[in-house]
Write a structure and sequence with these properties.
heterodimer; A: 321 residues; mainly alpha; two-stranded antiparallel sheet; globular; B: 247 residues; alpha/beta; Rossmann fold; 6-stranded mixed sheet; 9 helices; 24% strand
């Protein structure tokens, strides 16, 4: 954590560095996370594991939404394909989930090329609707192709190992994805994606074949989304068509916006808040979505930078003009 | 051989002919201004050269190579840079990052996803060079949206020049500028090397007459006259439609 944090997010001031207090807090938070399985029971550990894997999902979606400016409403397609690949390969051929996870990425990449090829030709609302349509198409396949997917009954997926092992694997993957994405965003390619988000027409006039870069971003996000889905199957031990449903795509968008688009930490905070609320509020009330909806509206209307942006504004006053 | 040539270039929007059989030839090294009343089709013409707008018919040649209907990124790579009538920038990014993006497209590794962009010394050096050239070196860390309108016009120019173009299209480079900023811009354009060819749209006649070697007059999409500034100011048809002195 020695280098710049969110250098592109803070494009307003490229030289600002993460303050050492924040850096220490991040390291302590990470260390605390690593200790969780020792202290929490099965339920708590499972909840944290799920949160971490959805962090990967939300971050991958944010690469599209927050960094490339592509509002995908069909990101569940890749999560679902990742989950089903692990489950189907395990259930039908007895393939180990780790190999299944590799296969998931190998499948997600060409799938993202194919879906992205059509979607990135559209922009704005048309892009949103096209991504949604492709994801729903896959959802229908999962329901209808009973011999392979088990239809609405779902499919038992091979677990990775004990709860603690799975937790460690997911945490490791999250750390890898986080630092990988940080590298990507600070790289020339990352800067190009931000340029496309800011002003695509100008990028084209400056010599960028933007379609190519948008497709690359779509494929990277798709592969990372598939990793999250594969981890979900290994963690959950069961996969149903819900992993491909538009609701999951929507939840991913809420996680990203709630936490703060265009940052890596934001989607993780958003995911944690979203899932913890979902688990704890839904115990006491069947209307947890009501609270979530209210929070979402508050974020969109009053905290446009999401929870993370709001926190940074409080802790680092004047950091955002 | 002309650097840029349009042959019977036409573009219609419905029944409106924005560009009507325009035959224009821009010589290498020339400063060529396009003038004409509002709605004469000046920006449409520039957009067709820049690839932002597809011609309905006719052809465009750059260095005797046909570029009709090429995408903007292809046109840029061939050596035609441009600025826009309204500032068209990455407003939330810093001045430095704006220019660096333009440099990166032409001589960087835009597909590199592993090394920090700050690691590329040549990229930084060229970006600083361009910023120095347009006089924005001391403003490089500022976000573009915090700049004055005139300074933002300079960033437009910097982005166009960063690509090392042979031809640069300037769409009203002094629009919205204060008189002092306009004078600075004129001085700046005058200082640009003659290896660079300039095709510009400009409303300010003082700017046009102090910069242009030749002037083309557009009226309702048609090319009314092309010639040296002195010829154009004597041209009766031009005076009638444009300078409004023949009434």
């Amino acid at each position: 954590m020695s280098k710049r944090a969110g250098s592109v997010v803070n494009a307003d001031s490229p030289t600002r560095r993460m303050p050492s207090a924040g850096r220490h807090a991040a390291v302590i938070a990470l260390a605390a996370l690593a200790l969780v399985p020792l202290w929490l029971g099965d339920y708590g550990r499972s909840l944290v594991t799920e949160t971490l894997l959805f962090c990967i999902f939300a971050m991958s979606l944010d690469l599209l939404m927050g960094y490339t400016g592509l509002i995908s409403f069909g990101h569940a397609a890749f999560f679902g394909v990742g989950a089903y690949t692990v489950a189907v390969l395990g259930a039908l051929f007895g393939i180990h989930p780790v190999l299944g996870g590799l296969a998931a990425v190998c499948l997600a990449a060409p799938l993202a090329v194919a879906i992205g090829f059509f979607c990135i030709r559209a922009s704005g609302v048309y892009f949103i609707m096209l991504t949604l349509a492709f994801a729903q198409l896959l959802y229908t396949v999962a329901i209808k192709w009973r011999s392979v997917t088990g239809g609405t009954d779902g499919l038992v997926a091979p677990r990775l190992g004990s709860g603690t092992e799975t937790y460690c694997a997911v945490l490791l993957m999250l750390v890898i994805v986080y630092f990988g994405m940080r590298r990507l965003i600070a790289s020339p390619l990352g800067q190009v994606l931000v340029g496309i988000r800011e002003n695509e027409a100008r990028m084209r006039a400056a010599g960028y074949a933007t379609a190519r870069y948008k497709l690359i971003s779509f494929v990277i996000a798709g592969c990372l989304g598939a990793i999250a889905g594969a981890l979900f199957a290994m963690h959950n031990g069961f996969v149903s068509p819900a992993v491909l449903f538009w609701m999951l795509s929507g939840e991913g968008m809420v996680m990203v916006v709630l936490g703060g688009t265009g940052t890596l930490v934001g989607p993780m905070i958003g995911t944690a808040v979203f899932l913890l609320l979902k688990h704890f509020v839904s115990i006491h009330s069947s209307h947890w979505e009501l609270l979530l909806g209210a929070m979402f509206i508050a974020c969109v209307m009053f905290f446009k930078q999401g929870i993370y942006g709001w926190l940074r504004e409080r802790w680092l006053p004047g950091s955002r003009p | 051989m002309s650097l840029l040539r349009t042959v019977d270039l036409s573009r219609s929007f419905g029944s409106l002919l924005a560009t009507d059989c325009v035959n224009l030839a821009i010589e290498a090294g020339e400063r060529h201004a396009i003038i004409g009343p509002n709605g004469a089709g000046k920006t449409s013409l520039l957009n067709q050269v820049g690839g932002q707008l597809r011609p309905t018919s006719g052809q465009i040649f750059f260095k005797d190579r046909e570029i009709t209907g090429l995408a903007p990124e292809r046109v840029c790579k061939l050596g035609i840079g441009r600025t826009f009538q309204k500032n068209n920038l990455f407003t939330r990014l810093s001045v430095f990052d704006n220019v660096r993006l333009a440099v990166l497209a032409m001589r960087g590794q835009p597909l590199n996803a592993f090394l920090p962009v700050t690691r590329f010394a040549a990229l930084k050096a060229r970006t600083e060079e361009v910023l120095e050239q347009v006089g924005l070196a001391d403003r490089q860390a500022a976000p573009v949206r915090s700049l004055s309108y005139g300074e933002q016009r300079q960033v437009e120019i910097a982005i166009a020049l960063a690509a090392d173009p042979e031809l640069v299209l300037l769409d009203e480079p002094t629009a919205g500028m204060s008189p002092a900023e306009t004078a600075q811009m004129v001085e700046f354009v005058k200082r640009l090397p003659r290896t660079l060819t300039i095709l510009m749209i400009e409303h300010d006649m003082q700017v046009v007459f102090s910069l242009a070697d030749r002037i083309s007059v557009l009226h309702y999409g048609r090319l009314l006259a092309t010639g040296a500034p002195a010829e154009i100011s004597r041209n009766e048809a031009v005076q009638e439609i444009y300078l409004g002195t023949a009434h």
